[in-house]
């Protein structure tokens, strides 16, 4: 099987594609995988590090207003189409899969015109611009949230609910590695564990709210707070923590980054963070309740739509960034972790939303397409 994968710009597009690639290597004895991205996107660093063959094309997002940049974008798109055509003709894939981002547009569009099987995967409740465009051309549209179907109603005959590939990866954690990670992080197993994730680069409003509630966290003994600041903000935040004389507090742990997130999530009672699609896939697969603080800076406010879907099903609560304060965040967290029955119910509700078999579902879509074509 020859598979061409594409997706880029953010980790939310790249990691699902890599999850698919790794799963295919486990399932297929003979599989050749090529990943197509852009030189400027995160994929140019992440994909080669993962050991997959990587090729690039030139493409960028369209501007909403007419300008010289718009002309340059169209020129790049034309060039990207030619480059995509050349790569596809050379690689001769059996199937082409896109997971979002501007790079998918020329690759999937050209692949479809050339007669190749095409599949896209949408991670969010509200589909991105590229996937909405491609939905009319590709053979199958895999979605992570059932609610996404209403935004793709014109193409519902090709829409299939599969879940997010990240959900399948996090459930593979074994107890020994999870226990080891918890010990290395300094977790106290006698306390509830609340984790704050503000992203690899941090999120200032979340960081400010957390800083403003740390003194309250230090005064209670119901939960420990593992505060993952993001590497960019770590030094500044640690200075502020020391200034407050909280760096030795038993219930406060501060880390710049955690690489073993699946292992940590398996020991997390409540998570505080954004509402990206991969985050929600991981949380629901493991049944971890959350206090969502959706980013208001994303296209079509899709993180709030993601969060609302979980909240409406009982798997978490939401605080909009405009309403976020240290007091409100602490009061919300303390209320939840002080009520074991409520927390357990939220955990169960979250788990019922999870789709840990997402990778198998996507693989089945691919095999069915290939089988139909051969017959």
Q: Provide the CATH architecture of the largest domain.
A: 3-Layer(aba) Sandwich
Number of helices: 16
**Overall 3D form:** elongated
Mean pLDDT: 91
CATH superfamily of the largest domain: Glycogen Phosphorylase B
User: How far is it from the N-terminal to the C-terminal residue, by CA?
Assistant: 16 Å
Number of strands: 13
What are the secondary-structure elements, in order, as H or E?
A: EHEHEHEHEHEEHHEHHEHEHEHEHEHHH
Task: Give a short account of the largest sheet.
Answer: 7 strands, parallel
Could you tell me the strand content as a percent range? 15-25%
Family: Belongs to the glycosyltransferase 28 family. MurG subfamily.
Pfam family, one: Glyco_transf_28
Subcellular location: Cell membrane
Protein name: UDP-N-acetylglucosamine--N-acetylmuramyl-(pentapeptide) pyrophosphoryl-undecaprenol N-acetylglucosamine transferase
